[in-house]
Write a structure and sequence with these properties.
This protein is an all-beta fold and 97 residues long.
Length: 97
């Protein structure tokens, strides 16, 4: 099952969070494994994905390869405040041999 994190509503934004989501293909992986992020966030203007500071469209997909446990966050570009969406990817330690 894909973990889904529903988007929060920014205090500075009048839009509702209805229909807003950020999902990950897996929320637990080994270091270097790929995870697909998939999102749809209503509104206008670009978003900023952290970590990395990437400018992203309101809807899309991205493959990431976290090396450590990481929280990926989508924020409204140009606005301060909490992220509008986030998902935690836990990177598991290598198996004991």
């Amino acid at each position: 099952m894909r973990p889904t994190i529903l988007c929060a509503v920014l205090a500075a934004s009048p839009r509702a969070s209805q229909g807003c989501s950020l999902t990950a293909s897996s929320n637990r992986v080994e270091a270097g494994q790929s995870v697909e992020l998939d999102w749809s966030i209503p509104g206008q203007g670009p978003l900023r994905l952290e970590p990395g500071g990437l400018r992203m469209p309101r809807q899309g997909r991205l493959i990431v390869k976290p090396l450590a446990t990481t929280t990926y966050q989508m924020s409204e570009e140009g606005l301060s405040g909490p992220p509008v969406a986030q998902v935690l990817i836990t990177v598991l330690p290598p198996p004991v041999q």
